[in-house]
Design brief:
The complex is a heterodimer of chains A (253) and B (243). Chain A is α/β, with parallel strands linked by helices. In chain A, 34% of the residues lie in helices and 25% in strands. Chain A has helices spanning 44-51, 91-95, 97-101, 106-119, 135-147, 165-182, 193-199, 231-247, and strands at residues 2-13, 16-28, 33-37, 59-64, 67-68, 76-79, 153-157, 185-190, 202-206, 213-218. In chain A, strands 6-7-8-3-9-10 form a 6-stranded mixed β-sheet, with helices on both faces. In chain A, helix 7 crosses helix 8. The longest helix of chain A has 18 residues, at 165-182. Chain A is globular and about 50 Å long. The model of chain A has no long low-confidence stretch (mean pLDDT 85). With 243 residues, chain B is an all-alpha fold. Chain B has helices at 2-26, 34-43, 45-79, 81-94, 103-110, 114-138, 142-150, 155-192, 198-207, 211-239. Chain B starts with a helix and ends with a helix. Chain B has 2 domains: 1-31; 44-239, Orthogonal Bundle (MetI-like fold), CATH 1.10.3720.10. Chain B is globular, with a radius of gyration of 21 Å. Classes of the chains: A alpha/beta (253), B mainly alpha (243). Chains A and B meet through strand 6, helix 3 and helix 5 of A and helix 7 and helix 8 of B.
């Protein structure tokens, strides 16, 4: 589906050049759920923007379905940390924005969006503005906006970090339900160990900047129901915690 | 609506009362009481009405021209660091010049009718809107831009869905602030050149030492401001409903 081959990226700022990524290589298979975890500033978000086609690598190659991409791709959805919702558009207009930009015919576009909002529990807020929604609802709206596009690759940058624990677990379940029923591949960037173990079939650990892979953890049970209370879950979580401790720093939330 | 109306009534009562007390205290012909002034509004309605309309026309046309030119340029400069590097210094040199100093040149070039007044006000509006809109466009949250681009938006679609709506509230702030300056410049321009508009009406009254008539003109000028602000409010409510 998606493959990074020796990708490096530098940022040129006022303080000179900063290397964000140094020879990052990994692949995401079709229908796979992959988590990228690492200390803050390790270049996780950069990797995600590169995967989304919003940045171009300075070295190395990024292939999606075997093709190098230049610019955003139709089948790729992106959810950023603060969701990037448009405060001046209603819930309905936000959800339907991707379809509108792609000039999808209006009638089916509106019908499909209505169904999706119903599924995500946002139907009765269709005419509200994002500023009037709770954090969890905004998150679901961001999800609705990309799911409306029928994606085969979903990229998420700390999608749940702004939410409290209870809501976070409910939304992790929602993410898994959608992923299982729609069969897209997902790449989730997080710094939460629990979230990584609950969502990622494979967990890639990045070291401090410039970001590169330092470890990979296989986690085949991720996505199965009740995993959060299995002994395997705790075993994986503590394994991941010690991996992170030896490579850098991450909060244990 | 009813509450707003009540607010205006209350404001009028307070202002008229303060004015009345001040006029009594000063006891000078230069400051007539509202009781002397208000009848003048009725007496000179036939002259004030057309002068009011011509002043309103000049300001509104100037606002439209200034905004229509400044808005796209401000958005473009705000979103293009390269353009900002080139045009930024030019803006900073030209912006602080009080545009009223160009009145003599404009009078020579454009005559004494509407054109020099409209151009002068449009120039003032242009710079204030340009700088405000540029800064607003610069401050658009990057997450919104990236998200919309990831949905497949072209540069143009990013402007349409993100940059323009994000800048609209700032545009209205700029318009509110600059319309104060615009009315001041209008007064100067009308007072100095030509014989139409509220500025000319006020200065004529002054020349005749008819202070109540002059204050009737001042009241009309205040009303001109109210019309402008209410116009901005209505437009903003329509265009920035999410606020």
């Amino acid at each position: 589906m998606l493959s990074f081959g020796n990708v490096s990226k530098w940022y040129r700022g006022g303080a000179g050049e900063v290397q964000a990524l140094d020879g990052l290589s990994f692949t995401v298979e079709r229908e796979e759920s992959l988590v990228l975890i690492g200390p803050s500033g390790c270049g996780k978000s950069t990797a995600l923007l590169l995967a989304a086609g919003l940045l171009a690598p300075d070295a190395g190659s990024i292939l999606i379905e075997g093709r190098a991409h230049s610019g955003p791709r139709l089948g790729t959805g992106l959810i950023l940390q603060d969701y990037g919702l448009l405060p001046w558009k209603t819930v309905f207009e936000n959800a339907t924005l991707g379809l509108r930009i792609r000039r999808y015919p209006r009638a089916p576009r509106e019908a499909e969006t209505r169904v999706l909002l119903e599924q995500l529990g946002l139907a009765e807020f269709a005419q509200s503005y994002p500023g009037e929604l709770s954090g969890g609802m905004r998150q679901r709206l961001a999800l609705a906006r990309v799911l409306a596009l029928d994606v085969d690759l979903l990229l998420m940058d700390e999608p749940l970090s702004a939410l409290d624990l209870e809501l976070r677990e409910a939304l992790q379940d929602l993410l898994l339900t959608q992923w299982r029923s729609r069969g897209y591949a997902q790449l989730i960037v997080t710094h939460s160990i629990d979230e990584a173990v609950y969502l990622g079939q494979r967990i890639l650990v990045m070291g401090p900047r410039p970001g590169t892979l330092v470890a990979e953890l296989s986690n085949p049970l991720a996505g199965s129901s009740g995993y959060r209370s299995c002994p395997e879950f705790f075993a994986r979580a503590s394994q991941l915690r010690s991996l992170l401790l030896t490579t850098g720093d991450a909060d244990g939330a | 609506m009813a509450r707003k109306f009540l607010g205006y009534v209350l404001a009028l009562v307070v202002i008229l009362l303060c004015w009345h007390l001040l006029a009594l205290a000063l006891d000078s012909p230069a400051l007539p009481t509202p009781l002397e002034t208000v009848p003048m509004l009725v007496l000179y309605a036939g002259q004030l009405g057309p002068d009011f309309l011509i002043s309103l026309y000049r300001v509104v046309v100037a606002l439209l021209i200034g905004t229509a030119l400044a808005m796209p340029l401000g958005l473009a400069i705000g979103r293009s660091p390269r353009l900002d590097t080139v045009l930024g210094p030019m803006l900073y040199i030209l912006y602080p010049i009080p545009k009223i100093v160009f009145l003599p040149i404009l009078l020579v070039l454009l005559g004494i009718a509407d054109a020099p007044k409209i151009v002068l006000i449009a120039l003032t509006i242009f710079f204030q809107v340009l700088i405000t809109v540029r800064d607003a466009a610069k401050a658009v949250p990057e997450a919104a831009v990236l998200s919309v681009r990831s949905l497949g938006a072209s540069r143009l679609a990013v402007f349409q869905h993100v940059v323009i709506p994000a800048s609209l509230p700032e545009l209205f702030t700029a318009l509110r602030i600059s319309s104060g300056t615009a009315v001041a410049i209008l007064f100067f321009a009308e007072a100095i050149a030509g014989s139409t508009g509220l500025g000319a009406f006020i200065v004529d009254s002054w020349a005749l030492l008819n202070y109540p008539r002059m204050f009737a003109g001042i009241i009309a000028m205040a009303f001109l401001g109210v019309v402008l602000y209410e116009l901005f409010d209505i437009l903003e409510r329509r265009l920035a409903r999410w606020r």
